[in-house]
Amino acid sequence: MKKFPDSFYFGASTSSHQVEGNCRNDWSEWERINAGRLAGESSKYSSLSSWERIKPEAESRENYISGVAADHYNRYEEDFDIAKKIGINACRFSVEWSRVEPFSGIWDRDELNHYRKMIRAMHKRGIEPFVTIWHWTLPLWLSEAGGVSHPEFPELFAEYAGKLAEEFAGDVKFFITVNEPEIYSLNSYLRGIWPPEKKGIFSYIRSMKSLIKSHKLAYEEIKKRIPDSAVGPACNMSYFEPGRGFINRGIASLSGHYWNRYFTDHVKSKIDYIGVNYYFHNRINYGFNRNDCEFASDLGWELYPAGMEHLLNALSCYNLPVYITENGLADAGDERRPWFIEETLRSVMKAMDNGVDVRGYFHWSLIDNFEWDKGFWPRFGLISVDRKNLTRKMRTDSCRKYKEIIKKGI
User: Fold this and answer.
1) How does strand 392-394 pair with strand 383-385?
2) Helix ranges (DSSP H) in 87-192
3) Is 221 a catalytic residue?
4) CB-side neighbour CA atoms (13 Å) of 92
């Protein structure tokens, strides 16, 4: 058994819209319009082994309305108390842009103070805050003006980032500028299945370029105000495993280079660390083939902790610190999560033994949340949230395993 360094951050993540409740932004408006349609299309999950259990919830319109979510906005102290009991020493969360700047150029002092109280509540419990500046949701005024496609979006985003840095100076060191820009652009601007439902390769390219510029400008604004801060993006990265033959190796290499490195390569002069969100393993056999996966989550996503080591090893070329800013699974029964946490952190340790400078691991998520267009039925939390009364309860086996690794190593 080998312990992680004393300076290693063992954390868990959340995002504002998914846990806070009562948000009013572009996503909340989109939910209201599309909830009935999403409920009607829920039969697409009928092939999942969990279907009979999730069916009543998945077929309900209310499942797709975030509403009070997990009421983390009012219950954050309770949630941080439980996090401390697990042994967590860092939490990643996002600021809800629509709360702090509800109208263009108008800052809500009460909401800024709310997030400052959250941050200080973490410090009080020995928990390091990692602040995500943008986790996909937009204020209505900005969404209506064109959102990410607005010509001045990068400048507006940088102004917002600078405001948060100004407000949180002295309390926050770690900032995550944008969350999974490639996933957001893919689903919102290429596939057109998320707001604003744009569809096309050119809208996708424009979105990615806008977010690349947004990160760069935000980085500069944060550094002006907090020179010793650590700033980076959180990118969705997958392990592309090649089948036999040079063609498959070539496809895997190109896929990994584009998907995992495109955003990072374009901002590498303005990042202090690499943030990795890892969920997917793609077997390349002249295309993608997931048919032979051994274990899967409630969502049907393959569980492949060994891919973490390969992915991290590939990032050593950047010679930068790495934080795993998201990694987790939907597992309502807590059947796979203890194994998944242990095997994933074993892979992390192997990568560290190979010389990769990994400095933290954040499990997704701290509490059960609203999983975007899938609603509430996927349960990702280390802490379960009863949908009827919002009562919190540790998922015992997972929390015990995570706490054991934090204390003793792997």
Assistant:
1) antiparallel
2) 97-100, 109-124, 140-144, 153-168, 181-185
3) no
4) 33
How far apart are the two ends of the chain, measured CA to CA in Å?
Answer: 5
**Contact in structure between 185 and 211 (CB atoms under 8 Å):** yes
Angle at CA of residue 155, ends 139 and 227, nearest 5°:
105
User: Rounded CA gap, 10 and 325, in Å?
Assistant: 10
pLDDT band at 286 (very low <50, low <70, confident <90, very high): confident
Strand pairing category for 274-284 and 174-179 = unpaired
Return the SS3 of 41.
coil
pLDDT in tens, 44-100: 999 998 899 999 999 999 999 999 999 999 999 999 999 999 999 999 999 999 999
Is the pLDDT assigned to residue 206 strictly greater than 90? yes
Question: Please, what is the average pLDDT of the chain?
Answer: 97
Q: Residue 366: which of 20, 123, 51 has the closest Cα? A: 20
Rounded to whole angstroms, the Cα distance separating 198 from 175 reads 29
Given 326, 335, 343, 404, the catalytic residue = 326
Q: How confident is the model at residue 293 (pLDDT cuts 50, 70, 90)?
A: confident
Does the pTM surpass 0.90? The reply is yes
Question: Do 348 and 9 touch, CB atoms closer than 8 A?
Answer: no
Residue 80 has, within 13 A of its CA and on its CB side, a CA count of: 23
What integer is the mean pLDDT of 25-41? 98
Q: What is the DSSP string of 243-281?
A: -SSHHHHHHHHHHHHHHHHHHHHHHGGG-SSEEEEEEEE
Q: Are 83 and 122 in contact (CB under 8 A)?
A: no
